[in-house]
Design a protein that fits this description.
alpha/beta; 10 strands; single chain; 21% strand; 7-stranded mixed β-sheet; globular
Length: 294
């Protein structure tokens, strides 16, 4: 599968503010692939293949959908981030006339991928076939309030799935198993440095043991197994690491509390313990997934 070490990223001025398009590209080109081992492990466990009709909530720029489609699955993605969704379209549906088609226009039945722009799930195809797998590959448990929008999204999606369908939630592993947690503490410290202190959502906080189970309970789902997956973050250099990490959104509260150049400077400094002799950056991490039944 896609290697986790990102090479040959063009140099950029990390002190310059990133617009939404640049941030989405940094996510798609640098950061998203770090979770590829998580996608593969979940798909192996769920036996994803031609019989799978998958709904991906928070599908982002579509790599997880692409992996599932390569296994033969029919995939539908939902996301409210237009920039990331545009990149997903380029990956999954490069031939579609997206500029002229309405957001909910029906797609040909033979097409294995579909993307929805407004965040509201829809049936698996034009005939109303239900989903048998719902995935959430945007890991939770590392920022305050990062699961608040997930519960209503799951409640909207479950009625579109067959009875007993599987729902897979994902989250960060224990902080002591995630080297990246040390870098993310920079975000928390900078966010708390504002005077007066800011309490906006999105600030980093340590992952809790039952984060995924709490979401499942609030969404009315029944846990049915779990697993842990090694997802090391590997970058060609510190510059790529800074760009990739800031594309996650986990540093947004810190940027609001201070400014982007300050955050980038301190993140780069925090990355030094993970820099190897050849200049690459390597941070071992463990992520967790929870399998639930509707």
């Amino acid at each position: 599968m896609t290697p986790t070490l990102v090479r040959n990223q063009p140099a950029a001025d990390v002190s310059a503010p990133a617009d939404a398009g640049t941030r989405a590209r940094d996510w798609a080109e640098i950061q998203e692939r770090m979770l590829a081992p998580l996608y593969e492990a979940v798909y192996d466990r769920m036996e994803v293949g031609a019989a799978t009709r998958m709904l991906s909530l928070g599908c982002g720029s579509g790599l997880a959908m692409l992996v599932a489609a390569a296994r033969g699955a029919h995939v539908t993605g939902v996301d409210s981030d237009r920039e990331r969704l545009a990149l997903a379209r380029a990956r999954l549906l490069p031939e579609a006339d997206w500029d002229n088609a309405p957001a909910h226009s029906p797609r040909p039945a033979h097409r294995r991928a579909r993307l929805l722009e407004d965040g509201r799930p829809a049936p698996a195809d034009a005939d109303g076939a239900p989903y048998n797998l719902v995935t959430v590959f945007e890991p939770i448990g590392c920022a305050a309030g990062d699961s608040e929008g997930l519960v209503p999204a799951l409640r909207s999606a479950v009625p579109l799935a067959v009875r007993g369908a599987s729902v897979v939630l994902t989250g960060w592993g224990p902080p002591e198993r995630c080297a990246t947690a040390g870098v993310l503490r920079v975000a928390a410290r900078l966010a708390e440095s504002a005077r007066p202190p800011r309490t906006d959502p999105g600030r980093w906080r340590p992952t809790l043991r039952d984060d995924l189970e709490d979401v499942a309970a609030r969404a009315g789902l029944k846990p049915d197994g779990s697993g842990r997956v090694s997802c090391p973050f590997g970058y060609a250099d510190v510059n790529s690491a800074v760009r990739g990490l800031l594309s996650t959104g986990l540093f947004d509260a810190a940027v609001r509390a201070t400014d982007r150049p300050q955050v980038e400077k301190e993140v780069a400094e925090a990355l030094h313990p993970y820099r190897r002799q050849d200049g690459t950056v390597w941070m071992p991490n463990v992520f967790r997934y929870l399998v639930c039944a509707t």
